Write the structure tokens for this entry.
Amino acid sequence: MSARRGITILGSTGSIGCNTVELVEARPDLYRVEALVANSRVDILVDQAKRLKARLAVVADEAAYPALKEALAGSGIEAAAGAKAVVAAAEIPDADWVMAAIVGAAGLAPTLAAVRRGAVVGLANKECLVCAGQLMMAEVQKHKATLLPVDSEHSAIFQVFDFDQLDKIEKIILTASGGPFRSKSRDFMADVTPEQAVAHPNWSMGAKISVDSASMFNKGLELIEAHHLFDMPEDRIDIVVHPQSVIHSLVAYVDGSVLAQLGAPDMRTPIAYALGWPKRIEAPVAKLDLAAIATLTFEQPDPLRFPSLRLARSALRAGGSAAAVMNAANEIAVAAFLDRRIGFLDIAQVVERTIEGVEHCELGSIDDVLAQDHKARQFASTVVGHVS
Ligand code: NAD
Ligand code: MG
């Protein structure tokens, strides 16, 4: 048995995935890599697998399999493809630490597979908690898995959250950068292009989460994520806009103390925290220079220009399938916006109409979640057809 921690990275070619690969590669004394999983980017995946000496490389897209197999021939690295192979990669027992960094509800099945074998899961894929939070958290408990939030806000809360004195926590406060349109008018937002929406002022991220940040759906998803991770009711989770993205979130206690975690806006810090946990490891990030930053500011989010926050709060209060439907509709709407089929402000409209149009139900199993997710995607696609 090697003393090094076995690692599997789901979504290794994405923004979170590449940052994770960089940190893992820097510490071969601590980590060895079992499996790397991507959708279809064979070139990046093969390069990563060879550099990290992974045992297995998987593409979800079966059409990419011949290229993967050919590129790995003679390397000793196994190749596999398809949705089942993605789940099988998450199940490899030799990886006791799994990074869940697939984007969207597509991450649900493999993340759940890692949870069900009691792994330590670095959770970047917030959508799986949004659409199946209750079921996921029950599985985490049942299988004694460990969920370590990688989302910067939730990592911040995790670091200052006193799990032994839950009754002394008054509320948690999620900070939001406000995204690229924080101070723009609704008229301006009506005509923005995908390029403008993905140009985030502070963070460099994948396309979907960048659009989510611009619409503030990201903060809505994070509200629901925080509710499940920290068992906080909706009315005890505040959202405050903090354009500098230095304070990553806060926990308020009954004695008036408010504890925060600060850092440069660089995902390598929360990823390193999850990788090293329960210890800390170094991350090659810029050190925080408070005197140079000089000013930290805060403001209320504008509910008129960012209806996403109202939609997320009401989905969370409604419970059952509401958040899964909201998430699926948002994925369809964001893809349509990135494809230039609908405008930026249409995203919230598509989501709202889908929530109204898809019948609400309770979610008793993951199959129920997948069925509602499917229905919501179909409904939202029809709405997209009408508004475009
Ligand atoms: P990304 O688009 O850059 O990468 C997504 C990854 O998922 C890629 O490796 C892609 O190949 C893979 N993938 C997509 N569909 C797949 C499928 N069906 N099966 C297997 N793999 C698939 O996205 P990202 O920005 O790295 O975000 C990943 C997740 O982390 C998202 O849930 C996002 O909300 C969350 N997150 C990201 C950031 C960030 O800074 N990028 C911060 C917080 C949370
Ligand atoms: Mg976040």
In short: The longest helix spans residues 366-387. DSSP finds 17 helices and eleven strands in the chain.
